[in-house]
C-alpha cells in the first residue's frame, strides 16, 4: 500500500506497534506539510501524523482494510481525507466552511500531473500581460473596486487587489477549458497568496491588520507570489498523485455535521464508515478559532463566495448564534464532568450559556457519528481543553462521557502536547487589557468504538 511505504513516526523502535499507547503522539519536529498537506495553511489543523498512526495501527490489526471508508465530521483542510487516501481508503467528510470543502477536495483528490502542467503553461503564457493591463487600468482609474468583490475597505493594497481579481478571472477560463478539478487546484494557490497580499497580520487566524506604517510599504508582487506557490504545489501534487490509488473516492459535503445523515440531497449514508478520525473545534468560532474570519477574503476572491456566506461560517459553527437547537439540560446528567464545569461557571457568573450551546451542538454530532460508523468500529476524537471565564473545560472527559451515553464504548485516552499549532497561547477572557488566561497547550485523543446497533 502507498500509505505504508512512507516513513512514519510511531514511537516503537522497530516501527511495529502492538498498542496505541506505544506511540509518542506529540510528534515533535515532524514534517506536517509533506505531500498535499503543504498546499495551503489552515488554523488549528490536526497534524497528519495522528491519522497516519491511527490508520497504520488499525490496518495492522485487521480492523480496517483497503477499500474501507474513513469519515471526518469536521474536515477542515482535509487532513483525514488525505491520509485516508494514502492508506488505501475512501474518504468522506463534512464541513460548513466552503473554503474548507475546497481545500479538502483539492488536497485529497489526485490529479493527472501532465494535464496540470499543461494548464499551468496555458495560464502563464499570458498571465503577466493580463496583470500588467490590470495595473494600467487601475492607474487610469478604470479598475475593479473592492465593493465589486465584496471585500471590506482597507484590507488590500491597490493595484494588487485588482490583480488578484484578474487571476481569478483567468482561472475561471482555465476551468472551462480543462475541468473543475484543475480549476480548484489553481484556486487554492490563489487563496494561499491572497492572505499574503492583504494587510492581514502574519501568524493570526482572526482578522487583524498590520500597523498602518507597515501598510504604506507593503507592495507584494502578485505574479511572483502566484507562480512560486503554483510551482511548489504542482511538485507536491505530483508526489502525492504517484502514491495514491486514483480509483478511490473522496466525498466532501458542504453541509452541517449535526444533521449529516438527514441533510437534503447531501446526506452521509448510515453504517457507511469503517473508522472515524476527527479534530472537533475547541469551542465556538467567535471566541476560539475563527475559521470564517481566516477564510473570508480567500474564499471571496479565489472561490467566488459571497461576503454574507462567509460571515455566517463562524455563526453557524458549534455553539454559534445561528444554531436552531434548544438547550439540553440532560447533558449535565449524562456527563458529570460537564455538570461540574457548569456549576463552576454559574458560581463565577461565567459563560455557562455559551458552554451549554457548544456542548449541545457537539453532542448532536456524536449522535450522527454513531449512525454513520459501523457497529464496533473505532472513532478517534482529537480534542483540547480550553478555558471559559478562567474555568478549564475538560473536553476530553466530556467527550468520553457523552459518547458513552450515546452508546460508544471507551477504549483509550491518549495525551499529547502541541509542539506548534496556529493558536493563541493566552487570551483576555474578561476583555480587560493586560489580563490574560491560558488556553490550549495539550490535547487528548479520545478513542471509542461505535455502538452495537
TrEMBL record:
Keywords: Methyltransferase, Restriction system, S-adenosyl-L-methionine, Transferase. It catalyses: a 2'-deoxycytidine in DNA + S-adenosyl-L-methionine = an N(4)-methyl-2'-deoxycytidine in DNA + S-adenosyl-L-homocysteine + H(+). One of its GO terms (biological process) is methylation. Its EC number is 2.1.1.113. It is an enzyme of class 2 (transferase). Transmembrane segments: none annotated. It comes from the Archaea. InterPro entries: MeTrfase_CN4_CS, MeTrfase_D12, SAM-dependent_MTases_sf. GO terms for molecular function: DNA binding; site-specific DNA-methyltransferase (adenine-specific) activity; site-specific DNA-methyltransferase (cytosine-N4-specific) activity. Belongs to the N(4)/N(6)-methyltransferase family. N(4) subfamily. This is site-specific DNA-methyltransferase (cytosine-N(4)-specific). The lineage of its organism: Archaea, Methanobacteriati, Methanobacteriota, Stenosarchaea group, Halobacteria.
